[in-house]
Amino acid sequence: MRRWLRANALSVTMFGAFLLFLVLQSVFGWQTRNEELTQYGLPPEAYLAYLGTGHFAEAVFENWESEFLQMGGYVLLTAYLVQRGSSESKPEQGSDRPDDHADHAKPDSPWPVHARGLALKVYRNSLSLALLLLFAGSFVGHLLGGTAEYNEQQALASGAAPVNAWQFLGTSDFWFQSMQNWQSEFLAVGVLVVLSIFLRQHGSPESKPVTAPHAMTGD
After folding, report:
1. What is the DSSP annotation of 158-201?
2. Using an 8 Å Cβ cutoff, are 176 and 66 in contact?
3. How confident is the model over 127-157, as pLDDT tens digits?
4. How many CB atoms lie under 10 A from the CB of residue 125?
5. Nearest by Cα to 181 from 132, 138, 212
6. Quick count: other Cβ atoms within 10 Å of Cβ 138?
7. Could you give the 3-state DSSP secondary structure of residue 157?
8. Residue 37: which domain range?
9. Cβ atoms 193, 83 nearer than 8 A
10. Residues 112, 171 within the same domain
11. Rounded distance between C-alpha atoms, residue 86 and residue 80, angstroms
12. What is the total count of domains within the chain?
């Protein structure tokens, strides 16, 4: 077990932090929602019931949506675009790596490499495809959760008739929620791309070696 944890420490830490902060988000969101219900003279909601509300779903999927869009877009863009001096970029004059081609397959290469054809075509782009599919799923989750939350807020505030998901998609409220997250995600990645030109982090694969010149592109 100790050896397994050491070999998988990064992913275990990331997913552990994710679960911790998700639980904390749910607890504080539940408290916030009950404060709102109290203001309207309504009884507080049980914690488990809160987990099935639009309030919680909207908050969770709204953030997942932006994260997966950023990561999927970034993986795809780095395949075609370069940034001189950044450790996040492939070399300016770099072509495809030899090992990106099936002709350089090894005995222990993943099975789609040996299968060739459609399986290989999909596998060659499977990382960006998976991330963008996760974005699409999160987008739908945000839309459905947001619709439920929007309808409840409208009913509490003015007794307005509910809208369906397609109608909520056309509201400025939905797109305001999305854009406030999308812009911050691309800002963060852009800052990392540029800062990695001039700054270093010893031991991190996200950084160039400490002694590398600023003009060196890639890691």
Report:
1. H-PPP--HHHHHTSHHHHHHHHHHHHHHHHHHHHHHHHHHH---
2. no
3. 999 999 999 999 999 999 999 999 998 988 8
4. 13
5. 138
6. 20
7. helix
8. 1-48
9. yes
10. yes
11. 14
12. 2
